Amino acid sequence: MAGRLSSATSGKEIHRFVTGEQIDFLQGQFRLRNNRLTLVELRDLLCDIGLHYTDEEYRTLCLQINTDHDEYCQWDEFISYLILGFQDDDPLGVKQSLDPPISGELCLKLRRQVYNIVKIDFCPMVYYDGSISWSQGHWITTSREGVIQFWTEDWKPEMTVKTVPSNLKRSKTWVLETAPLPDLSMFCVAGLETELRFYDVVAASFTLKLVIERLPHPISAMAYSFNHAEPGKLITGDYDGHIRLFVFYPERKATSSSETFSTITRIPLQDVLCGKYGPMDCVDYGRLLPDIVRSIQFLDSMRCFIASAEENPLISTGGRSRSEQPCGMIIHSMELPATLVTKFFIPRGVTCFAFEPSNELLASGGPDCDLRLWDIHRPDKPSVVLVGHTSSITFVFLQDAGEKLYSLDQKKIIKVWDVRNRVLLQTFSQFSTVLVKGIPACAYYNMRERELVVASNKLFVTACSPEIALDRTDGDSHTKAVSVLLFNDLYQLVVSCGFDSFIIVWDHRLNRKMTIITEAHTQIRNGVLEPVEITTACFDGKHQMLLTGARNGSLKIWNISGRTCMRTIQMDDDCEVTAVFWQANRILAMGWNHRVVEFAAFTENDEYPRGLQWRKLHSDDILCAAVSGSMPGVMATSSYAGELVFWMLETGQPYRRYDATNPRSHIPIIFRDVPESKPRKLAPRRSMLVVASGNLAMRRLSRIVMPSGLEQMRQHSMQSMLFLPSRPMLAEYGTMLGSLDNGLVQVWSHHAQGGFKGQFNGIHMAGDRIITMATDKANRFLFTGTALGYVKTWYIENCWIPNEDAFHVNKPALRVLFPFLLNDVVPGRAKRSARDQPKPWLLNSYQAHRTCITGLLYLDATGLLLSCSSDRTIRLWTLGGRYIGLLGSPINWEPLATDLPPPEGYRFRIPPDLQREILVCCSPIVTNGQLEMLKVYKDS
To answer: Best label site of 25, 272, 527, 735, fewest CB within 10 Å?
Structure first.
């Protein structure tokens, strides 16, 4: 995480400033000094090339470059810093998607069929005026036995029919290809019989109307093109490589002598070619391909067509030179004589292809298992060959103007490719497990819905890189619940972790992903490597290292600048880590093991590889913990049973123990060793962020609902704790806040002679609870996030301190300092719930998410509040609750400053998924002479 990740201004970022000659000069200076420089020598060299830094800027730069944490800068460290900077500035390097292209579950539409499906078509609705609606229509599936089934858009059965030979000499047929003709309300069938059968499909009828017979060879591929301004065109390719174009003129009358008075019109192909059948014209292009035509497609924008053929596998092609190889694919104009003929020579031919007209990209696949990308103006050699399939490729399609390429092979394995970067994005093999083996599968790509339909004995539908419905949502930041939200002061960037085991570094000012680490924590279960949820994280003191804790009890140390895992530690097996702290050279971890475990941060100082366990004072899982910023250092831990323990960080000894349910009496600490009982086996439980019914974030499995009387008697546990570091460690000061699962926020003094100082109600709806809390550096404001998605801002500067009665809140003066915090516009129940509470003062309340808020982060320099949720999003808000945007959303916002709040006239938005909760309040706010309107979120 270098270069662009620097907190310095863009003009002082080394990789953006230096030239190639200056890099060579710096390398020479490093070589003269054994490839390392002192930090003072490096600063002098940078000054020589024109880079001048203040002391604070240079200290920050050294922390970013010097990954060894010593007094020297190695050449390897310096050049790595430059390389990472260039990578961060590469716009293609940060476009990595969080979700794989095929990430949803397979949707079973049709269960086991009597006849295996070999062709899938979609027939759009064509109205009387000629307009076409692809949002309405019906699906058509075909089997080799001639059974054709019509389905509604949501795959409900409409009609089942059967096609038979038109001459009735045989009662069975073998269907080779089909094509719907929507504008003519017809359906074309080609079978082993050398004929084309056209059926009228009107209402619930399926009537044979036209037969073109006496074809030289059976038809193997067809495509149909139509629009309102031109007649429909059907193009066919047969088993001998011949290609013919049929053009329909239904307004003409039939004058052929071959037509009889029967309901079925039979016409030989030769009569159609000679123009003896008025409603149809035929153009014969001849034998353009050497063998079976496997695929054919119109290119209406270029007034031509593409056709491909697969070589006969029984014919030996060994020893052939390239000039002797037959043509495997051709682009041919529809006019004769041909104005465009482009031939492609591919070994063993082409089974399928896809064309993107916007950039004229052509992709082909065949029996040699290779995917080839072509520039149609340079057919001599493919521009790219993508290797990865192990069986013949049977279906391909392009997406997003040719950015992604999907390919399906005979083993029913789909591979997704990044065309621009020429890398494999995903291998999807679930179709091979749900479809019967040994039977070929057919596929159809629904471009409008961005869905892939695959069928053989069953039919499944799966989404392929589905588009975000921007009218309903701004998108997602993670693929699963976001559990951790941190701010890195060194790089001035936001870091988030989630249950998808992703670590993402964000430039929140530009809504840009700087780094994505996938599968940060993994485990092997049943022989399969699977990701593990990240539940907690923290930085080291210098903000150079990131420590993450996971659901399975593992801890990992990450080098932020190098984006690599430096060390893996196991706290306990199958034991969720709920809190971690990095104190000097020590790491403190705790969770479902009931203990605090201490590890050395670096292996060379590790005297206890398995960790040093502190005294056990909790009888249940530790749910939350916090570390004070005052001296001496103190840590507080709380368990599911409501036990609150204060520890001295320097010695690791407890000095106070309380019960949150009965806070005014403390629990004595027994310092003598007590024999432990046999440790119980931790049963699988839900993690702390798993959302249960009612959108509440439950820490455990749902317990039995007790009567209200007994409910009041049970032990309450703390969901979150927060120290106020600006306050001294004195018995008279309230220095720590703890939120209970009944909605109360308790205030404590962590002094040895302190204790419980008071409490207030932090919710306004029954069943809600405070899950997370945050504060500014001066501890003037308290931000709380609840399980129902509400954010509240409280003014706590003069609360729970000595002589606090002498420091009454001057609301008019506070409104002058913070005009966006208006208590008068706190709406509904939130205002009524705090009416009888003298302290703290509720400044605002709004719904920020639909589900549980799992983390809050306040940035003092810009006055921005970031919230993350189990709904997989991270959102930016002003201090007054105005919505800026969502990290990772395709909707960008105006760039934010590094040290200033959003300016006047900034275009704030409304979250699409919260539009119904919006109440526009017309309370004017006068700022610098301009009138603004404050949007307030209704939380009633």
So the answer is: 527
Separation between Cα atoms, residue 292 and residue 242, nearest integer Å: 9
* HEC-encoded secondary structure of 386-420: EECCCCCEEEEEEECCCCEEEEEECCCCEEEEECC
Which has the higher per-residue pLDDT, 372 or 318? 372
DSSP letter at 667 equals P
578 contacts 623 by C-beta, under 8 angstroms: yes
81 membership: H or E segment, kind and range: helix 75-89
pLDDT at 521 over 50: yes
Where helices occur in 253-352 by DSSP H, the ranges are 269-273
Please write the tens of the pLDDT for every residue from 614-657: 999 999 999 999 999 888 899 999 999 999 999 999 999 999 99
What pTM, to 2 d.p., does this model score? 0.77
Looking up tokens 């006849």, which residue turns up?
115
Structure tokens at 36: 């390392």
The token pair that represents 291 in the structure block = 């063998």
Say if CB 497 and CB 484 are below 8 A apart. Answer: yes
Alpha carbon distance 718, 797 (integer Å): 23
Q: Which helix (H) or strand (E) is 30 found in, with range?
A: helix 20-32
- Residues whose CB falls within 8 Å of the CB of residue 526, separated by 6 or more in sequence, listed in order: none
Sign of CA dihedral 770, 776, 777, 778: negative
Of 160, 113, 447, whose CA–CA distance to 151 is shortest? 160
For residue 124, cis peptide bond before it (omega within 30 degrees of 0): no
According to DSSP, residue 917 is labeled: G
Contact 404, 417 (CB under 8 A): yes
How is residue 327 annotated by DSSP?
Answer: P
Q: Which two tokens stand for residue 540?
A: 């080291």
Cα separation, 309 vs 268, in Å, equals: 26
Q: Where in 799-917 does DSSP place strands (E)?
A: 841-847, 853-859, 864-869, 874-878, 883-886
pLDDT digits (tens, 9 = 90+) for 830-877: 888 888 888 898 888 999 999 999 999 999 999 999 999 999 999 999
Nearest of 665, 644, 663 to residue 655 by alpha carbon: 644
Which residues share a beta bridge with 868?
855, 874
Among the listed residues 372, 226, 364, 247, the one whose alpha carbon sits nearest the alpha carbon of residue 294? 364
CA distance 206 to 132: 22
* Residue 169 main-chain phi, psi, to 5 deg: -75, -25
- Structure tokens of 397? 């399609």
Q: Which residue has the tokens 């991270």?
A: 874
Upper half-sphere CA count for residue 266 (Cβ side, 13 Å)? 11
Residue 123, pLDDT above cutoff 90: yes
Q: Answer for the pair 552, 574: CB distance below 8 angstroms, yes or no.
A: yes
Q: Using a pLDDT cut of 70, give the percent of the chain over it.
A: 85
- C-alpha dist (Å) from residue 20 to 26, 86, 227, 859: 10, 13, 57, 38
- CA-CA-CA-CA torsion sign (617, 618, 622, 623): negative
Q: Is the pLDDT of residue 245 over 60?
A: yes
- 508 Cβ neighbours under 8 A, 6+ residues apart: 493, 494, 864, 866, 876, 887, 896
Nearest to 284 by CA among 212, 376, 176, 387: 212
Rounded Cα–Cα distance for residues 330 and 343 (Å): 5
Beta bridge partners of 372: 364, 385
Q: Which residue has the tokens 């990472």?
A: 84
Cβ–Cβ under 8 Å, residues 113 and 458:
yes
What ranges make up the beta strands (E) of 736-840? Answer: 736-740, 744-749, 755-761, 770-775, 781-786, 790-795
Query: Which amino acid is residue 551, in one-letter code?
Result: R
Q: Which residue has the higher pLDDT, 135 or 107?
A: 107
| Biggest CA pair distance of the chain | 113
Compute CA distances 558 → 337, 608, 797, whole Å: 66, 21, 36
Number of other CB atoms surrounding residue 41 within 10 Å? 15
